[in-house]
Amino acid sequence: MTDHTVRDLEALEALYGEVNEVSALKEISYLHPVYAAFVAAAPFAVLATTGPHGLDASPRGDAPGFVEIVDEKTLLMADRRGNNRIDSLRNIIADPHVALLFMIPGIGETLRVNGTAEISVDPELIARFTIDGKPPRTMLVIHVESVFFQCSRALIRAELWNPDKQTPRSALPSTGQMLAAVTHDRINPETYDRELPPRLKATLY
User: Fold this and answer.
1) How far apart are the first and last CA of the chain?
2) Could you list the residue range(s) of the whole structural domain that residue 126 is in?
3) Rounded to 10 degrees, what is the CA torsion of 34, 38, 39, 43?
4) Among the four 26, 142, 154, 202, which has the fewest Cβ within 10 Å?
């Protein structure tokens, strides 16, 4: 059987050619004000980490500006209530390198931030990021190393913000149905689905 796998950098670069000059120039090592505007407006980001047990990409979201800009090289993000798997945090303990992909509803461009992170329990930070009397367990202090925007091609192809392309939740297995399937019916799907909405509302923070 013919092997069509690309295995070395030279072969890969030959397929794609040189990097467009603008694509190279847009990457900088700090949060320029035009990039900071994206961070300040974003209600959602994907946090990517790596560790001894593999990779993790975790959705993070809150009101726009939930990732706070301290200065052009530093960001703050509260680790809000979740499922206590703490996959991202375990990875950061082992390897501080992180990547963030910021997304803004209705905007085609995304913003990519790469750097390192540390986990803080600074009481002043915890207090400052408390919402409705509920403090985050920890804070991420992110040290920026590179920043650049991603063009809108992927979101245009996906029609991600097109309301006519939204998929009804009922078209896919429910959360309870997924859990029942992967746990071999250890979870009752009807009970789980009935109890989930009020539980989510009560445990957002």
Assistant:
1) 54
2) 9-158
3) 170
4) 202
| Domain total of the chain | 2
Name the β-bridge partners of 146.
Answer: 114
Q: How many CA atoms lie within 13 A of 41 on its CB side?
A: 14
**Spatial strand order in the sheet of 97-103:** 54-61, 44-51, 97-103, 110-120, 138-150, 74-79, 67-71
Helix axes 175-182, 189-202, angle to 10 degrees: 120
C-alpha span between 24 and 33 (Å, rounded)? 19
Instruction: Give yes or no: residues 21 and 55 share one domain.
Output: yes
Instruction: Encode pLDDT of 108-158 as tens digits.
Output: 999 999 999 999 999 999 999 999 999 999 999 999 999 999 999 999 999
Q: Say if residues 44 and 67 touch (Cβ distance below 8 Å).
A: no
Domain-embedded: residue 2? no
Q: Which residues of the chain have pLDDT under 50?
A: none
The answer to whether residue 1 is domain-embedded is: no
Q: 47 and 144 share a domain?
A: yes
State whether 100 and 183 are in the same domain: no
Query: Does 4 reside within a domain?
Result: no
CB-based contacts of 73, cutoff 8 Å, min separation 6: 30, 31, 143, 144
Is the model's pTM score more than 0.90?
Answer: yes
